[in-house]
Design goal:
Layout: E1 11-17, E2 20-25, E3 31-34, E4 37-40, E5 52-54, E6 60-64, H1 68-73, H2 84-94, E7 101-105, H3 111-120, E8 125-129, H4 133-145, E9 152-155, E10 168-173, H5 182-188, E11 189-199, H6 202-214, E12 217-224, E13 230-231, E14 238-239, E15 249-255
Parallel strand pairs: 7-8, 7-10, 8-9, 10-11
Antiparallel strand pairs: 1-2, 1-6, 3-4, 5-6, 11-15, 12-15, 13-14
């Protein structure tokens, strides 16, 4: 059972409002500087989650336990990350859960990797392929921060050449040329296993779907996920003016056995 009190070495989310939050590791002797004054991190140790801590200027921040989305949205970035709205759809349609074995490429900053590891733990594994070693270094830091490093194998390899693993539950791709992986994915997947690719352009998506049809995949679908926030206030409730609209096209398919 997780402690309801802040322990040194943990990450906490310090919340002022929806626009101003800080994900910080609690370390004795350290100080967090904000535009509302500084917070001595020693003052957090032993406090209950959900309570408040004051800055040097008397401004109160609420101490929250970070959620998966906090680790994703506040990850150290070298590349554009995948948004939670797309990750959620991918996870649900992939069918993965505790114990699943998942192949992923490319790792990027590890946002999707972190989410996949969260759902396959405690006895599953994510095999994440990335051709750029500097991206893997950043991803590893983000995955470690979320406490999920034990469930991920990071691989500095080109997945368009081959996939090392066999009998995996899902192959999930966030890369420029997913159609080049389709044949390898078919070999690596269990029967009925899921293939998922995320592509920002429709041309990439069409090429991938055509390749899926050539390699005995079935139940092929492509979606675009749009999420619009709502300003909720009595007498002023309305859709928010700004929204994160198109981020990419998500294509799902399932492996069928090739007929002789």
């Amino acid at each position: 059972m997780q402690s309801q009190k802040v322990v040194e070495g943990e990450y906490v989310l310090l919340y002022l409002d929806q626009r101003r939050t800080y994900l910080v590791k609690v370390e004795a002797g350290k100080t967090l500087h904000t535009h509302k004054g500084f917070i001595k991190l020693d003052d957090l140790i032993g406090k209950n989650y959900g309570s408040t801590v004051g800055t040097s200027l008397g401004v109160q921040f609420t101490i929250l336990k970070p959620l998966l989305r906090d680790y994703i949205m506040k990850s150290v970035r070298r590349t554009q990350i995948m948004y939670p709205k797309d990750i959620a759809l991918i996870v649900v349609f992939s069918g993965i859960g505790p114990g699943s074995r998942v192949v992923e490429a490319g790792t990027g900053t590890g946002a999707l990797t972190t989410a996949l590891a969260h759902f396959v733990k405690p006895n599953g594994r994510v095999y994440s392929y990335e051709v750029r070693s500097e991206f893997l270094e950043t991803a590893e830091k983000n995955i470690k921060r979320a406490g999920l490093r034990d469930f991920v194998e990071l691989k500095n390899k080109d997945i368009t050449v081959s996939i090392d693993e066999e009998d995996v539950d899902a192959v999930i791709l966030d890369m420029a040329t997913p159609w080049l992986v389709v044949s390898h994915a078919h070999k690596a997947l269990k029967p009925c296993g899921t293939f998922i690719s995320f592509s920002p352009t429709i041309d990439q998506t069409v090429k991938t779907v055509e390749e899926l049809k050539e390699h005995s995949f079935v139940d092929i679908e492509t979606f675009e996920c749009l999420v619009r926030g709502i300003q909720t206030e009595r007498g002023k409730t309305r859709p928010q003016t700004l929204m994160t609209a198109h981020t990419g096209y998500i294509t799902f398919a399932r492996k069928a056995l090739k007929e002789p």
